[in-house]
Amino acid sequence: MRQKKIPMRKCTGCGEMKPKRELVRVVKAPDQKDEDGNILSAGEVSLDLTGKKPGRGAYVCKSAECLRLARKARRFERAFKCKIPEEVFDAMEKELGENE
Q1: pLDDT (tens digit per residue) in 1-38
Q2: Residues near 64 by beta carbon (within 8 Å), at least 6 away in sequence
Q3: What pTM, to 2 d.p., does this model score?
Q4: Domain 8-98 indexed as CATH 3.30.1230.10
Q5: pLDDT tens digits for 49-78?
Q6: Fewer CB atoms inside 10 A, N or C side of the chain?
Q7: Alpha-carbon radius of gyration of the chain
Q8: Contact, 100 vs 62, CB < 8 A?
Q9: Distance CA 51, CA 26 (A)
Q10: Is the Cβ–Cβ distance between 26 and 56 less than 8 Å?
């Protein structure tokens, strides 16, 4: 019988490849657009602890240190191609600290 393949993802903080289940997904929700294609509101960036939210995702280890490293190097901003406010990072750090 064949072994089931374990999906691997790269942490944006430390850069290590780890199994997907050991990482937390950070997601940018899709932009809200009108019928002409004009952007009404930008997508929200948040932690996705279930891994089911729609949108563009990036992965980070469950440690607050990796989140700080990714924040300092602006890796989430590069992955999502948008500016992320400091309040969002503060909320993500708080939420990650509660779930450790």
Answers
A1: 788 899 999 999 999 999 999 999 999 988 888 888 88
A2: 93, 96, 97, 100
A3: 0.84
A4: yes
A5: 888 889 999 999 988 899 899 999 999 999
A6: N
A7: 15
A8: yes
A9: 9
A10: no
